[in-house]
Amino acid sequence: MGHQTFKKLAFVASNRPSAKDALEELVAIYGNTTPEKADAIVPLGGDGFMLETFRRFLPLVTGGLPVYGMNKGTVGFLMNHYDPENLIERLEKAMVTPVHPLSMKAEAAEGTFQDIAFNEVSVFRQSQQAAHIRVSVDGKVRLEKLVADGIMVSTPVGSTAYNLSAHGPVIPLGADILALTPISAFRPRRWRGALLSGHATVRFDVLNPDKRPVSASADNSEILNLRSIEISHDEDTTLKILFDEDHGLAEKILQEQFAT
């Protein structure tokens, strides 16, 4: 990280017993401070808790406060290996991965909503009826009617999360690409999604929303009874995620592409 020093750390933990134990152990060694006065936030948990931490301290992390997660969860793709030793030295040697979230603007039956997402923005059928969705990219209709359980737009960081579970592509970090991935598509039957420019704007219009209601989610934030939604990269918002120098996010993404 260059010449930045890490004298004051803000530790936060998920509700997992192992995360709470780790919090107690780290605070005993390094102390604890409030995020507002810290040189870095250190979340202890899994990827879901990492996303919660981003949202909880959004003004701080978008203002430049780096985040260095340590894995005390299930997956921990966004987290570093947990080790209480030499934490300050690891932070000073850590690699910075800048992350730009997605921005969404949604029209729903209850009104207009705006939000951001670090992994993906997805729309999903809200009932037993398959969703009927019109898909447009940069103002041009690309699919007049997608019949599916849903569809998502994923960032490179999120490409190994829900996107991968839906058989979407793993995107190398820094590729400036978004993944457009259907969820259990029925028609067009052979459509498997698309790779888009990182500067693309994607729009989903819900067809027949009263009979076939659809919800939208930005990571873990949900909107019901969607009518339409626009999604694009928020290039003006940057988060700094720290990874150990020998195990950065780019390497994790590459490893995932060779997983068996």
How would you describe this protein?
The protein is α+β, with helices and mostly antiparallel strands and 260 residues long. It folds into 2 domains: 9-100 and 238-257, Probable inorganic polyphosphate/atp-NAD kinase, domain 1 (Rossmann fold); 102-233, Probable inorganic polyphosphate/atp-NAD kinase, domain 2 (Tumour Suppressor Smad4). Helices cover 19% and strands 39% of the residues. The protein is built from 6 helices and 16 strands. It has helices spanning 17-30, 47-56, 58-62, 87-93, 162-165, 249-257, and strands at residues 9-13, 40-45, 70-71, 95-99, 102-108, 111-117, 120-125, 131-137, 140-154, 177-187, 194-197, 201-206, 214-218, 221-223, 226-233, 239-243. Strands 5, 6, 7, 8, 9, 10, 11, 12, 13, 14 and 15 form an 11-stranded antiparallel β-sheet that branches. The protein has a 3-stranded parallel β-sheet with strand order 1-2-3, with helices on both faces. Helix 1 links the parallel strand 1 (9-13) and strand 2 (40-45). The longest helix is centred in the first third of the chain and has 14 residues, at 17-30. It is elongated, with a radius of gyration of 19 Å.
